[in-house]
Design goal:
Order of helices and strands: EHEHEHEHEHEHHHE
Number of helices: 8
Bound molecules: nicotinamide-adenine-dinucleotide
Radius of gyration: 18 Å
Shape: globular
Distance between the termini: 38 Å
Structural class: alpha/beta
Strand content: 5-15%
Amino acid sequence: MKLAGKIAVVTGGAQGIGRATAERLLLEGANVVIGDVNQTRLEETALALGQPDRILALVTDVSKKEEVETLVTAAVRRFGRIDIMVNNAGIAPVQDFLSVTKADYDKVLGINLEGAFWGTQAAARQMIAQGHGGVIINMSSINSGLANPNVAIYAISKAGMNQVTGTAAVAFAPHGIRVVGVGPGTIDTEMVRGDFVSSATDRAILARTPLGRYGKAEEIASVVAFLASDDASYITGETIYPDGGRRVLNYVMPEKR
Ligand code: NAD
């Protein structure tokens, strides 16, 4: 158990990567607070994960600064402190570049980028007050550095998030707080099963994925667990990319493998 006795907060923890992360952190011995805007799914997940004495679920909209702060405060009130903050909540609407409205733009940036910023700030404030360091993990994406105009605002939000990671890592290093990012490739969750992936994009994604398959949420959760642990004690400011080889591939993979 890499994280015995640690207290972790995971936003967007009701499903997908966030849920898998909560499950893995519990397995590694942490107590976990999950925040999500989807109350029904959040309650189902909290119940399904079992161990009610080690889980707290709180309805949270991460685009609202005060709600992210309340989530951190609730974790401290229930478990006494916070050691790990995972800013995971995100949305990825597929949309033509020219059709993006101000409301669309504000919504994606508000959840993906501002949510991570305020989550990082609230967690860092608490960790500094505690005086024992901590780890903040931001769920980025390969889209932070690859240009897909159908998810332009999403890509912009994740590129910005990488600078939340970098700047916060430098700001909080003197306090023993590490800030790291995880930038998954395409992972089999509801986000991609929805309108993110059509059969044409599915073919395109697999042609750009040397490992020849989508990742599983558990394969991202395991990277989070590693980064949250002392095994990653010299990593800060970086975003790690569990992407099946997508970012390093030039051209495309052969159709028949
Ligand atoms: P998902 O849609 O399955 O889960 C996202 C969760 O975030 C949901 O439970 C949703 O209710 C919650 N959420 C949405 N808006 C919220 C808000 N305002 N406040 C609080 N919670 C909110 O998606 P996922 O695939 O598990 O994605 C999780 C994270 O991983 C996201 O940040 C996403 O950008 C990132 N990511 C996913 C993939 C992928 O291929 N699935 C790839 C790269 C990065």
